[in-house]
TrEMBL record:
Name recorded for this polypeptide: SprT-like domain-containing protein
One GO process term, biological-process aspect: DNA damage response
Transmembrane segments: 15-34, 46-69
InterPro entries tied to this protein: SprT-like_domain, SprT_Zn_ribbon
Organism, as annotated: Oncorhynchus mykiss (Rainbow trout)
Length: 370
């Protein structure tokens, strides 16, 4: 709502405005008639004189109009920039209908000191786990994680790693993640990961569809059963933060919560940490002949004639040369009989000769076994 302006003030404003407009118009008309173009003979003095007079008349018109309209606003009118003062509100807050007696006192509850419990601990206690279970040992039925720490657990690991991965995933999903992870999550092996033990890939289908996660394990780093056991639970914690909590926080609070829960559920596990400290078993080792720095490679791909040590530019020497393999019995048989069979099958191709040798070697092996 605007402020009410008296009619007298409005009339005075109108008079001032009309007077200013009328005076400005008259002076401009006078300037037009007085300062008409002059003959060419008197052009320069007339132009200078007309310019000074026009400038003076224009300034006078604007000053007079501004004074009449803005500076002298009229009686009982406040400057336009001054904001109206607001009167203090005299309203009184209503009192409650029922008053509380002064002698009525609420009973004071006795203070009971509770031990401080961290946030992860409180969440874990709601799921039936406590810190006392760490010292009590693993209570999960069918748990076989302790047996994977022995030296013989990595025997025939390459042949049994797929089956062991499936068993570990089912065990962790039941005991740590309450079967909330999908039973058919993709867990694959990657032979291109040379230093990273595992990696969890998370995403969501287009259009806000279902969330998904898949885990990749390194064949070159996870080369034993105990490393597979520890790496898989680490990556499953990443998958749980996304699939269960819809959060991608890296190694943040949610990941630490599941890592702590895994340690409490399986005390025989080492503490789930952010990064691994595994000594990667390289098949080939190179050493600098000058500074004795060693380099590891999974394949014999480093050309020592082209590349030098990055620290001192010394010559690199291969420490673990390829072991010479003993020839197989079939190779010895071919070496002894290839010439004679080749003569008997004159004009035949090399493939036909090798087929004949294979048949003869199989016949000889059966006779020796009988």
């Amino acid at each position: 709502m605007g402020r009410h302006i008296p009619k007298k003030v409005l009339d005075q404003r109108g008079v001032n405005l009309h007077a200013g407009i009328l005076l400005t118009t008259c002076l401009n008309i006078t300037r037009i008639f007085l300062f008409r173009p002059c003959p060419p003979t008197r052009l320069l003095p007339a132009v200078v004189f007309n310019w000074y007079i026009s400038f003076f008349v224009s300034i006078s018109c604007h000053l007079i109009g501004y004074f009449l309209v803005c500076v002298n606003p009229g009686p009982n009118q406040k400057p336009p920039l001054s904001a109206p003062r607001q009167k203090a509100s005299k309203e009184v807050c209503p009192r409650p209908l029922v008053r509380t007696p002064l002698d009525l006192k609420t009973p004071v509850r006795p203070l009971v000191s509770k031990p401080a419990v961290s946030q992860p601990e409180s969440r874990l206690k709601t799921s039936g786990l406590s810190s006392s279970s760490v010292s009590a040992g693993c209570m999960t039925p069918g748990c076989f994680l302790q047996s994977l720490s022995g030296p013989g657990s990595s025997r025939n690991f390459k042949q049994t790693k797929e089956e062991l991965t499936s068993k570990l995933y089912r065990l962790y999903n039941t005991s740590v993640f309450d079967s909330k992870l999908p039973s058919n999550m993709s867990v694959s092996w990657n032979n291109k990961m040379r230093k990273t033990a595992g990696y969890c890939i998370t995403g969501q289908e287009r259009g806000g569809g279902n969330r998904y996660a898949r885990i990749q394990l390194s064949e070159k780093v996870c080369d034993s059963a105990d490393r597979l056991r520890d790496t898989l639970v680490h990556e499953m914690c990443h998958a749980a933060t996304w699939l269960i909590n819809s959060v991608r926080d890296g190694h943040g609070p949610f990941w630490k919560l599941y890592a702590r829960k895994a340690t409490l559920a399986h005390p025989e596990l080492p503490v789930v940490t952010r990064c691994h400290s595994y000594d990667i078993n390289y098949k080939y080792q190179y050493q600098c002949s000058r500074c004795k720095n060693t380099l590891g490679r999974h394949s014999k791909s480093l050309d020592t004639q082209r590349f030098v040590c990055a620290l001192c530019t010394g010559q690199l020497v291969l420490l673990t040369p390829a072991k010479p393999r003993a020839p197989t019995p079939f190779a010895n048989f071919v070496k002894e009989n290839y010439g004679s069979v080749r003569q008997n099958l004159a004009g035949q191709s090399h493939g036909e000769v090798m087929r004949k040798l294979s048949v003869d070697f199989a016949t000889k092996t059966k006779l020796s076994q009988n």
